[in-house]
Amino acid sequence: MDWRQAFTTSSMTVKIVVVTALAWALVAMLGAQDWAFRAGGFIPIRFDGEVSVPGALLPAIVTPLSATLLHADFMHLAFNMLMLAVCGIGVERAVGRGGALLLYIAGAFVAAAGHFLFNMGSPGPMIGASGAVSAMIGAYAMLYSKRREGHGGMRHVLQLAGAWIVIQLLIGLTTISSATDIAIAAHIAGFGAGLALARPLLLWRYRGA
To answer: Which domains does the chain have, with CATH numbers?
Structure first.
């Protein structure tokens, strides 16, 4: 892959990285983390119609996406954006800009659904792009895994999934503030969404070929 050509302003992946980084920088400069996490984080208990969460400004249905713009600290942001850039560029090259954007958005919502299933009554905000990035990593693994040493590519997919989850656990335990949840279920669900959607998006892009 020609990385110089891949990292251009026309790349959807680069645009997502830039917008996400700017959102984190703005919140950090204003010192408004607690307010932003409540306003735009994904809070499972909000989906109980009888519960009102103070400070939750955005409609609950859009918070799986708004949560991807919020990060606890620079390390949380940097690692997610690094993985997004590395895997997202490859996925975008295969499925196109529209496909990459659709995958990222779908990953965010599927990840939020996974988190919700195991945290229905949680009042804590889930933040970060890890779930959506997990979808990109899952798609990258599915699209670029090859048979090695007599084993199918799925072995590499599972190894990558395991490594990603372990790394997320370590980052969550060392960097994410006590005001947020470590959303492992969201990471797993997002990764699964990437595995499931990679080939359909690839086929859709080249449907007329």
So the answer is: 3-205 (1.20.1540.10)
